[in-house]
Specification:
There is one protein chain. The protein is of the alpha/beta class and 255 residues long. It has a single domain, classed as P-loop containing nucleotide triphosphate hydrolases (Rossmann fold, 3-Layer(aba) Sandwich). The protein has ten helices and ten strands. The strands form two sheets. The protein has a six-stranded mixed beta sheet with strand order 6-7-8-3-9-10, with helices on both faces. A hairpin with a 2-residue loop joins β4 and β5. The longest helix has 14 residues.
């Protein structure tokens, strides 16, 4: 197992429940700062639940509760003093489907900063340009800011959803299937963008694409039936897996 030298996130003995159903069992791991960590495993194995725990989106599910500890920068994000809205500013989310608002491109980007108190038009203009530039679509969209975001192609919508997450200047970005339903060229663009973004933030992403995990991530965590089976640097997981279950999954013998 590789050594995590500068953890941004520390999860200890995490168990997550939806009513009587247990989605995660005793998960513990450290996530390295300014690196990409992929979460892999079959459908309904707990990957997305784990992702959502990291910015308390599981709080929005009825009858959900958890045991264990989640620390970000050594701060317990589930302590009563911790405000979920402020946490979600620090820990952004890019969903599998872009989930854009039926509003203009500009309003989609400006929404988050407005929620956090930024009202000055010049400041919002600067944030919109900066966010779209970071997401590598400013040149495509700078003359279309009043256009309905839902009229854009799937690929541009995905970049826009990343720009929307970047608009509140997060330190961590959670991505659930960031290239879902995209063609190979658009997928390559998203992967290249992820590699650029990790220089200034920590990225955790769910993917069912083994090749994508191998290409993009520095670390990989394999989940199966709600349990963390193996977690190591990506090269080790894909070339020297320590667990038979991991080997069976990445070679396609386990679905």
């Amino acid at each position: 197992m590789t050594t995590i030298t500068d953890p941004k996130i520390e999860v200890k003995n995490l168990n997550v429940f939806y009513g009587d159903f247990q989605a995660l069992y005793d998960v513990s791991l450290l996530i390295q700062k300014n690196k990409v960590t992929s979460l892999i495993g079959p459908t309904h194995c707990g990957k997305t639940t784990f992702l959502r725990v990291l910015n308390r989106l599981t709080d929005l599910k009825e009858n959900s509760h958890h045991t264990g500890t989640v620390l970000i920068d050594n701060d317990d994000i589930y302590s009563k003093k911790d405000d979920a809205a402020l946490l979600r500013k620090k820990v952004g989310m890019v969903f599998q489907n872009s989930n854009l608002f039926p509003k203009s491109i500009y309003e989609n980007i400006a929404y988050g900063p407005k929620i956090h108190g930024i009202k000055n038009t010049a400041d919002l203009d600067e944030i919109v340009e900066k966010s779209l530039t970071k997401a590598e679509v400013w040149n495509d969209l700078k003359d279309k800011l009043d256009q309905d975001a839902l009229s854009l192609t799937k690929s541009i919508q995905k970049h826009l959803s990343i720009a929307r997450a970047l608009a509140v200047d997060p330190e961590i970005i959670l991505m659930d299937e960031p290239a879902f339903n995209l063609d190979p060229n658009s997928t390559s663009q998203i992967e290249a963008l992820i590699n650029k973004l990790k220089t200034s933030m920590t990225i955790i992403m769910v993917t069912h694409n083994m090749q994508q995990a191998a290409r993009v991530s520095d670390y990989t965590a394999f989940f199966y039936e709600g349990r963390l089976i193996e977690y190591d640097d990506t090269d080790a997981v894909f070339t020297r897996p320590a667990e038979k279950l991991t080997e069976d999954y990445i070679t396609g013998r386990l679905q």
